[in-house]
Amino acid sequence: MNGLQISPFITSLPKVELHVHIEGTLTPSLRWKLAQRNRIPLPYATYADLLESYNVLYNHRKELHGDTGAPTFLETYFAGTQVLCEEDDFYELGMAYLEKAADMNVRYAEPFFDLQAYLPHGIPAATVLNGYMRAQREGAQKFGVRSNWILCFIRDRPVEEGIAAYEGGAALGGRDNGGSWAVSRGGAG
Ligand SMILES: [Zn+2]
């Protein structure tokens, strides 16, 4: 067994996932698909080029490892959010994660989500939340993974932007769209 394989014992254990940033679960294949669907230009001519761009771990901190021109982890993370535009996009991302979670025998999850990555681009909070909350409901039925969702704040962005994100989400209410979500505070990122 190599270091990338998970033993059947571990796979079969029931689990909870308490810290997962949903945007970070966006796979290259879903990113490519949504970019085509939403006509969002990517700086990669082919899917193979996009895949290659994910080879970034060595370059996580440019101040330590130098700038090779490859995107860092966070640059890739935020670039990925640019292909998420429509309610169905957020729904598909949520369902893809919950299906993967079920494969790992995760029974309960608390996915984190950003609003600040979308509101400045004119994507309403309702688009994001309605998509994720639909995935929350259907994911529980289809995959047997219950979840409560947590609104995150991006700490290196202006406070006003964070307040707008909070107010945009709070105006919808955690229960009005049939879902349940909360706000993280004081988290360590
Ligand atoms: Zn985190």
TrEMBL record:
Cofactor or coenzyme needed: Zn(2+)
Alphabetical list of Pfam families matching this protein: A_deaminase
Keywords of the record: Hydrolase, Metal-binding
Alphabetical list of InterPro entries matching this protein: A_deaminase_dom, Ado/ade_deaminase, Metal_Hydrolase
UniProt keyword tRNA processing present: no
Domain Adenosine deaminase as annotated: residue spans: 14-156
Protein name in UniProt: Adenosine deaminase domain-containing protein
Domain of life of the source: Eukaryota
